[in-house]
Amino acid sequence: MPVGQPEGNYLSEDDAAALGDVRWHWGQAYEINCSAGTWTARYVDDTSALTATSEPALRTLIRHDYVERRADELGALRAKIEAENTAIGRGEFALRRLADEGVI
Questions:
Q1: 3-state secondary structure of 49
Q2: Are 19 and 56 in contact (CB under 8 A)?
Q3: Are 32 and 19 within 8 A, CB to CB?
Q4: Could you tell me which residues come within 8 angstroms of residue 12 by beta carbon, excluding any fewer than 6 positions away?
Q5: Which of 57, 54, 18, 61 is nearest to 38 (CA)?
Q6: Judging by DSSP bridges, how do beta strands 10-11 and 30-35 pair with one another?
Q7: In the 8-state DSSP scheme, what is residue 11?
Q8: Gap between the Cα atoms of 28 and 15, Å rounded
């Protein structure tokens, strides 16, 4: 027996269960839907959408997208930390030089 969707789209029980499961796992990061055989996911902070013809294919796209987003975020964080450490290192070097020269 098909399960009704608000737009009048009907999903099989298997697809409805799969949709619920994908939403349970990824629903905090993505808005996930299925309509007319097209599975979509949109990252909550973005307007671009991932589309697939099946739930397993959408899961794969979500995983790849999420890993790529996390890699970008971690890369930016790593660059920030390295810049801060470099600045701290230069500051320490400058202080040692001033102390060696008797300025401080």
A1: strand
A2: no
A3: yes
A4: 2, 3
A5: 54
A6: unpaired
A7: E
A8: 20
Q: How far is CA 30 from CA 23, 59, 84, 89, in A?
A: 8, 11, 33, 41
Per-residue pLDDT tens digits for 8-20: 568 899 999 999 9
- Phi/psi-derived region of residue 102, left when phi > 0, alpha when psi is between -120 and 50, beta in every other case: left
d(CA 86, CA 5): 55
| Tens digit of each residue's pLDDT (9 = 90 or more) over 23-49 | 999 999 999 999 989 999 999 988 889
Which string of b and e fits 5-18 if b means at least 16 CB within 10 Å?
eeeeeebeeebbeb
Instruction: Dump strand ranges (E) for 30-102.
Output: 30-35, 38-43, 49-52
3-state secondary structure of 57: helix
Output the DSSP codes for 18-39: HHHHHHHHHTTTEEEEEETTEE
